[in-house]
Write a structure and sequence with these properties.
This protein is mostly helical and about 180 residues long. The chain contains 7 helices and 2 strands. About 5% of the residues have low confidence.
């Protein structure tokens, strides 16, 4: 009888240990108040990082965020060519980050005891979305569609790792711009 109890206990223990963690899609999305673009900008302002000076992944991330902030400023001022240039530069820097760390997370350990909002996929998605909007306004519909498809890819990547309201709303906006076959 003791053998059966021990055997059952071991099987139950191993079964629990082997259970996969809950997927991000089954979890409640992280609130827009906890993770949003303004918060990412705020965490990465300060000393400007030039892409030539970036040596570590966090330098490329910070530089990518700072270039995106400049692009947003130019977009609000309706300086579309300059905005596109900064969005593309931001995309290049974020793609360097994504070669080494592909996941988005609300708490990325940056320094001892501190963490940052880390969303290279979501930032790249937002860049491609806005580049596409500028291209559509310039009458370049096919180029806009290509950028929106890239945006959708990056948004889905982000949501695979960290489900956020920000990512869900971005995905809905992108899907509304693409033809129904997506």
């Amino acid at each position: 009888m003791k053998v059966w109890v021990i055997l059952f206990s071991l099987v139950a223990f191993w079964g629990c240990a082997m259970a996969p963690p809950p997927s991000p899609t089954s979890q409640k999305p992280i609130s827009i108040k906890e993770a949003n673009l303004e918060m990412v900008f705020e965490e990465n302002e300060g000393l400007e990082i030039n892409s030539e000076d970036a040596k570590e992944v966090r330098d490329f991330y910070r530089a990518g965020v700072q270039k995106k902030a400049l692009a947003e400023k130019h977009l609000r001022e309706k300086a579309y060519q300059e905005a596109m240039m900064f969005y593309e530069e931001s995309c290049d820097l974020l793609s360097t980050v994504l070669r080494y760390i592909e996941e988005d997370t609300v708490q990325f350990p940056c320094f001892e005891g501190s963490s940052i909002l880390f969303f290279p996929n979501l930032l790249a998605a937002d860049n491609h979305l806005k580049i596409g909007k500028i291209q559509k306004a310039m009458g370049r519909e096919k180029a806009a569609q290509r950028n929106w498809k890239r945006a959708l890819f990056f948004t889905r990547q982000s949501l695979r790792f960290e489900k956020t309201e920000w990512g869900v709303s971005l995905q809905q906006e992108i899907l509304s711009l693409l033809p129904a076959e997506q």
